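Q: For a teaching handout, I want to show students what a protein-ligand complex looks like in token form. Below are the inputs, and the small molecule is magnesium ion. Please produce the holo structure.
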Amino acid sequence: MEFQINKIFRQFNKPGKMLEYEPIKSGHINHTYFVGTDCGDAYILQRINHQVFKDPEGVVANKIAVARHVAEKRSHLPPEDRRRRVLSFFRTNHGPYLLKDKDGDYWNLMSFIEESRVYLRTPNRKVAFEAGKAFGGFLRDTEDLDPSTLVDTIPRFHSMSLRYEQFDEALQKANSKRTKQAEELVAFANGLREEMQSLEKRVIAGEIPLRVTHNDTKISNALFSEDDEALCVIDLDTVMQGVVHFDFGDAVRTICNTGDEDEQDIVKVGFEMDYFQAFVEGFLGESGLVLTENEIEGLAFSSKVMTFIVGLRMLTDFLNNDVYFDTAYDLHNLVRARSQFRLAELIGERLEEMDAIVRTAARRSSAAESAEKSF
Ligand code: GN1
Ligand code: MG
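A: Here is the structure, written as tokens, with magnesium ion included.
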């Protein structure tokens, strides 16, 4: 493996020779490696799963377009700070940012952000607030980038009707053992069909403006400094056109869960309202993001929708014998789906409270915005 990583790494145009490498295991789709070099610089090398991302060129084009746009927004920062707050990609020795190797695999390389850390679970309120700032700030920074210029790399990625179609198909083909094991979760998913498709109906009706969205705003996709200040948002694999609800809801899914995404002990799955409040304050209050009334509408509810949709995709993959998400053990996808569905259920019980928090923060941020304008 070391030989192969080194061989790929050498084909990118950057200083330094590889000294060490280490797989980074938190992603479920692509393979990612940390690479340290003899000149002290470190990199992140990524192999794009082209079964999932059928258009790797499009993926990389989107990443570069968005990273450049965000870099432009941060160009006023001193170089040291900029290095920690902006993603930079490297070209291959032949010029493009994407490398296709002899086995037909696709790779891209970016700089490693020094002295940064990631969390799989929120350790404290500050991290929830800072994560809100980071993901809200990402939407603010890309607000003036025309979303239609990005490639739709996974068409209908967050479409609930598509995810139900795929679920129905999997259910028909699944073997009897897995169907039996999934019985309870299948019933749960069937019971929510109408409710879960209501957000998509509003999107299709054109009620919610389309913008550039990240589409995978789990907490591990934000980098933090040693003192828990958010540095930047990573994993631009799925940046595409979307609605704010996708990013808000998906962020809440991991930031406010007291358990892991694949929590085996279901009683550990809980919804942390205090983290939700902090996240919302960061996302709506401090990020500078300004939303229309139609965007604020249903924002709290999107937390249930996005938690559910991830669970539904995991359940579908379980019924399909685990062909999509990387799994570590036999029932892994079923366990993931169960914990996501439990969280969706818990969120459903707290929606009124959550909505009130969102509305208060939105009022405050628009008041601050108009005060700034009149100033
Ligand atoms: C996948 O590969 P990773 O971990 O960045 C998935 C997301 C899910 C997430 C769940 C392309 O993201 O949609 O929310 O797992 N990405 C794709 O952890 O399907
Ligand atoms: Mg991702």
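A: Two things your students might notice: The chain has two domains: 2-114, 125-374. The first strand starts at residue 18 and ends at 24.
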